[in-house]
User: Which sequence fits this backbone?
């Protein structure tokens, strides 16, 4: 059955985005004490800041007459309207991505989860112990006979002073076949910087592009070539992103930097799944 990608052509409504934001905040409150503290601090800061500012401007307004009083009233109106616009924009931006992924899941009979647990995931990207790890907006189900989970993965790397945020779209698959630990490392990808993977055995896989280095515990490429092959890599490369591929036991991971925001990019990922030799 073909995948319906029309959700990526639709702009989520304000109500849909607000609903996803409210759902996520509710979930955060239920699972994380840290989230309660952070959200509480943000709430107190913004309400306190705008409350004090409004009180100061109103006090100045009632203490003045003429042009100055009028200007203060205008400034008060502009401040509050700007604050309201920023709050609405923030809530919409936070929930729009989730709303799109939920629609995509609904249109195809897949399952959507606002948060996705990757603590026990076997992939190298999940073992580098970064800061502030978040896996969310997960769409999962069965496609072309393969169980999958497509989700956003964010984390911070570096020191407190020079910290940067990394964002990935990850397609995790369970093909039912057990593979030897293998990494198809893009020479321009992120995983080339990660030292957690054993690179002691570099092997040659026919038809794999030259910009990929393949490291594996396999003695030959016969088994892993069902996943790491020209067709899979060609489809993933249509995203124009430096994708890495990893095999760990029965798990297969496609790592793509950034969030896949349009149907062309997402379709490349699912086309790659169909290119796996069953």
Assistant:
């Amino acid at each position: 059955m073909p995948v319906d990608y029309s959700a990526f052509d639709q702009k989520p409504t304000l109500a849909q985005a607000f609903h996803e934001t409210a759902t996520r905040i509710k979930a955060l409150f239920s699972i994380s004490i840290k989230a309660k503290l952070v959200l509480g601090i943000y709430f107190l800061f913004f309400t306190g800041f705008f409350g004090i500012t409004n009180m100061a401007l109103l006090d100045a307004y009632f203490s003045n007459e003429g042009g100055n009083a009028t200007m203060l009233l205008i400034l008060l109106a502009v401040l509050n309207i700007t604050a309201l616009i920023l709050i609405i924009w923030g809530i919409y931006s936070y929930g729009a991505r989730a709303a799109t992924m939920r629609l995509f899941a609904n249109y195809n009979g897949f399952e959507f989860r606002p948060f996705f647990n990757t603590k026990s995931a076997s992939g190298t990207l999940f073992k580098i112990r970064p800061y502030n790890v978040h896996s969310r907006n997960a769409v999962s189900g069965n496609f072309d006979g393969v169980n999958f989970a497509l989700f956003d993965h964010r984390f911070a790397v570096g020191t407190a002073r020079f910290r940067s945020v990394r964002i990935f779209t990850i397609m995790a698959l369970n093909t039912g076949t057990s593979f030897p630990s293998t990494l198809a490392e893009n020479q321009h990808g992120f995983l080339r910087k990660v030292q957690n993977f054993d690179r002691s055995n570099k092997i040659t896989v026919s038809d794999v592009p030259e910009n990929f280095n393949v490291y594996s515990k396999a003695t030959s490429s016969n088994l892993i070539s069902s996943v790491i092959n020209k067709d899979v890599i060609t489809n993933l490369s249509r995203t124009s992103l430096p994708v890495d591929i990893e095999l760990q036991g029965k798990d297969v991971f496609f790592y793509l930097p950034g969030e896949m925001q349009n149907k062309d990019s997402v379709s490349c990922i699912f086309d790659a799944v169909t290119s796996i030799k069953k």
